[in-house]
Amino acid sequence: MAEDDDPTTIRSLALSPDDAASAYAYTQENPGEAVLRVTPPFHGRMRARLHVYQRDDTELTGAIHIPPESVIASDVIDDYPRLEAALEDATPDETDEIRKRHADAVEKWQARARESILEATTIDTDDGPQLVELKQIG
Q1: 4, 52, 64, 88: least buried by Cβ within 10 Å?
Q2: Is 126 helix (H, G, I), strand (E, B) or coil?
Q3: Residues 6+ apart with CB under 8 A from 132
């Protein structure tokens, strides 16, 4: 493995709190998955960017995918508003209003998530999990 392909050189990740909150909400509300992605060449400080995919291509690209739930405080993750529960007993007439309230609740949740970014997380490497610092940008 070339040195610039070795993710163990990463010490810190710069990320946007908006990207983290949006990635988590996207995955809850849509098909596909959103993550924070870091691509080679790797170095000590890296930028993690929002990435949405249908097929995981990390084997081909060497990228590292960081699940947004690993950078947001767990109590905030636990409080994500669940639409399915609200729709369970709803009548057809109530559905539009419930969806509107849900969209508002997700917006409020995202604001809270942006304020709840952790100081560190682990990334998966061939040598096992590695602790990296998180630096907020934006």
Answers
A1: 88
A2: coil
A3: 10, 11, 12, 13, 120, 121, 122, 123
pLDDT tens-digit readout, 53-107: 988 888 889 999 999 999 999 999 999 999 988 888 889 899 999 999 999 999 9
Q: Is the peptide bond before 41 cis (omega within 30 degrees of 0)?
A: yes
111 three-state secondary structure: helix
Could you identify the residue written with the tokens 């995202």?
A: 110
Place of tokens 């249908």: 54
Per-domain boundaries in the chain: 3-136
Model pTM score: 0.91
